Amino acid sequence: LVTGRPDRLFLPPGGRVWFVEFKAPLGRVSKRQRAVHAQLMALGFAVDIVRHREAFEWYVNERLQGRDGVL
Question: What is the pTM of this model?
Answer without folding.
Answer: 0.75
